[in-house]
TrEMBL record:
Transmembrane segments: none annotated. PANTHER family: FAD-DEPENDENT OXIDOREDUCTASE (PTHR43031), PYRIDINE NUCLEOTIDE-DISULPHIDE OXIDOREDUCTASE (PTHR43031:SF1). Signal peptide: none annotated. InterPro entries: GlpE_sulfurtransferase, Rhodanese-like_dom, Rhodanese-like_dom_sf. It holds the Pfam family Rhodanese. Residues 1-39 are annotated as: Disordered. This is Rhodanese-like domain-containing protein. Residues 41-130 form the Rhodanese domain.
Length: 139
């Protein structure tokens, strides 16, 4: 089951990009003043990383799930954690998620992407984990 896009601010014609602080607030990675969650019941959005397999192990946000952009473009389903929650899409620098958001929204998924990607995430000193939960880097 997917969360369908509504007609509000995050709707099909609405805003498609969010800043790193907004992404952190929406995905439960820390309250950031002046931001709001995109869900009604306080449920955190899912952070969906669309990077390739060789980029993921070096460093990713804790709790993120991965679905490479080519798999999404080929019609692969969302990871179970993202089935009924809004999705915040991220990659290394912020280019691939724009395409992923278009694909997801066409399927009725409430999705936005993060301006600046994981590089901006790390620059904002948000958590990045690597192998075995150690501190990671953005490759």
């Amino acid at each position: 089951m997917t969360r369908h896009v509504g007609g509000g601010r995050a709707g099909r014609r609405g805003r498609r990009r969010v800043t790193t602080p907004e992404a952190a607030a929406r995905t439960g990675h820390g309250p950031v003043s002046g931001t709001r969650q995109i869900t009604g019941g306080g449920e955190a959005a899912v952070l969906l990383d669309v990077r390739q397999a060789d980029e993921w192990p070096a460093g990713h946000a804790p709790g993120a799930v991965r679905l490479p952009l080519p798999a999404s473009a080929a019609g692969a389903g969302l990871p179970p954690a993202a089935g009924v929650r809004p999705v915040v899409v991220i990659c290394r620098s912020g280019r691939r998620p724009q395409q992923a958001v278009e694909l997801l929204r066409a399927r009725g998924v409430e999705a936005v992407d993060v301006v600046g990607g994981m590089r901006a995430w790390a620059d904002a000193e948000l958590p990045v984990v690597g192998p075995a939960g150690a501190s990671g880097i953005v490759a």
